[in-house]
Amino acid sequence: MIVSLANKHVAIIGGGCAGLSAAAALVDKGFQVTIFESSPQLGGRARTVAVENNNLMQLLDNGQHILLGAYRETLALLRKAGVDETQVFLRLPLQINMQFTSEKSAFSLKSVDFLPAPLNMLFGLLCCRGLSFSERMSAIKLMLHLKKMHYQVASDTPLAEFLMQHRQSAKLLKMLWEPLCLAALNTPIEIASTSIFLNILRDTFMGNKRNSNFLLPRLDLSRMISQPIAQYIQAKGGEIKLNTRINKLKIEVNGFSLETKEGTSYFSDVVIAVSPARIDKLIGDIPTLQHALQQTQAFVYQPIYTIYFQYPADTKLPSVMTGLTNALGQWVFDRGQLCGQIGLVAVIVSAKGKHQQLSQDELALTIAEELNLAFSDLPKPLWYKVIAEKRATFSCEVNLARPTNRTAQPRLFLAGDYTYADYSATIEGAIRSGIKCAELIANT
Q1: Is 324 within 8 Å of 374 (Cβ atoms)?
Q2: Does the pLDDT of residue 3 top 60, yes or no?
Q3: Predicted structure pTM score
Q4: 119: which of 17, 115, 289, 305 fits an S-S bond (Cβ 3.0–4.6 Å)?
Q5: Mean pLDDT over all residues of the chain?
Q6: Average of pLDDT values for 417-435?
Q7: Which domains, and CATH codes, for the chain?
Q8: Is the pLDDT of residue 47 over 70?
Q9: Nearest to 227 by CA among 46, 362, 441, 67
Q10: Does residue 76 come out as left (phi exceeding 0), alpha (psi in the -120 to 50 range) or beta?
Q11: What is the pLDDT of residue 4?
């Protein structure tokens, strides 16, 4: 069967943020679109899971996400899908509070709202607590230097090495730069790419001061992201097939055939929007795509563990979001204050570390003890749940070779955060990659 290119029908394999973004952009351009998702729900790594406790179902996100005000394409897509930002996000000025014990805050930084960027961050650094005056000035000098250099470096280096070259002390690395690196890149600071980290700093601290705001989801991720975008796509005529795995992708004369359990369908263009760890099953037999395949097979992956603790209903932490220092746990979120899940606390442990050697029970016990140290009045948790995404993100390392959206096979494209070379593995990178694929298809 030959598909007329005058009436394109685009197949999108994968219903995560990249696939949904590509589909939404394509239906806007008038293309016929079908999304194939192998799992029973959309969203990819930004999804909600149902957990049973004491015969009650609890909805938990597969990870606690932090978005930035600089995520312009994510926010634009949500607006297009009818999502009211003020209803689904808690917007906070950038702030870092690293707690050591209940009596001692090791470090506290908050950007100020009455100054434009980047002065709001520089003034915040000047007035932060937990650093000596010389350390504060060192951080400010580095921020001014980065602005002067347009957040670019001549050659990529490990971030820790770059920071030490610019006289950032061990305490600055521990309290400021490492937490930011883990939050932005989910990669240990010793191996993280300086270039990618600076790209995110540039978008965060240049332009509108709201770019540096933290956006904390008030709703579960499925209701906030995948469901409204899916409804938008379907309202525009797009088709979404869940529980539908692609068994075979084959090149045809003027397009592609996709084989599923339901049979074979034909398409003019294909966007592969699955995890880079899974694309070998789709393109492994296509000679023109072997270079892209080799690049993805060289990727190393970093985990993210989210440990949920359910405390009694009257439990409330001092802040919605708190960092931990000298601990396995890194960020603590009070989901009662954030999204109405009363007494529920989420703790994030990012990237590789010694926590991977612990059983889930051991990890939960260790984190619970750290919480008791940081918040001495916490009662005993009623239950806990560990959600481990062992391949949560690709490791954003120095000079990492990454495929582009356009492949060597005409009319076959790759979408996903790993193809958006300016960013690490983020929702924003995934959504930008999907938009780029739609632009390439429209111009082909």
Answers
A1: yes
A2: no
A3: 0.93
A4: 115
A5: 93
A6: 96
A7: 5-46+220-299+399-442 (3.50.50.60), 48-88+300-394 (3.90.660.10), 108-212 (no CATH)
A8: yes
A9: 46
A10: alpha
A11: 45
